[in-house]
Amino acid sequence: MSTPQPRTMPGQSRPGSLELDDYTYSTPPVAIAAGQTISSSIQIEADSSFEILKRMAYFIINGVATSSVMLATQIPYVTVQLTDTGSGRNLFNTPVLLSNGFGNAQFPFIMQQTKVFSARSVIAVTLSNLGAVDIDALQLAFSGRKIFPSKQY
Fold it and tell me: Fewer CB near the last or first residue (10 Å), C or N of the chain?
């Protein structure tokens, strides 16, 4: 006979289980001049680990924001490199074009294998504008979930 599992009340979890919350981390919007490379970072909060499920980009060029469908002519010629500073691992073997690693809010880039960043770790972001046009604003967003250890009741 199997041992009956204890019942939990709404909002409670079983010992040893995880609590998951939908969450998004983003870079601040940044302007990038033609030919410029900039670095940014995202600090993962101390209360939980974070699992990235989707990657999105939003940009404004010449005062015009991205449409709901990114056309090849609208995507800036920007490369991106992401680094997990805790492990020192790059997420790409070489910087990738924005369109190869990021979607938009309507059509996000859904990762084939999710990536978990530990609490208090940092995602280092390097952006290079290889084009001849200045980018008024570019923001990257990482949609996923916070992973909390369960509370002991």
Answer: N
pLDDT tens string, the chain, 153 residues long: the values are 555 544 444 455 555 678 999 999 999 999 999 999 999 999 999 999 999 999 999 998 887 776 445 555 567 899 999 999 988 999 999 999 999 999 988 899 999 999 999 999 999 999 999 999 999 999 999 999 999 987 655
Q: Which of 149, 129, 150, 139 lies closest to 48 in space, CA to CA?
A: 149
Contact 45, 148 (CB under 8 A): no
Calculate the CA 89 to chain-centre distance: 15
Q: Phi and psi (nearest 5°) for 138? A: -140, 130
Residue count of the chain, please give it: 153
Instruction: Give the C-alpha separation, 105 to 57, whole Å.
Output: 8
Q: Give the pair of three-digit tokens for residue 106.
A: 């309507």
Q: Which of 137, 140, 128 is nearest to 36 (CA)?
A: 128
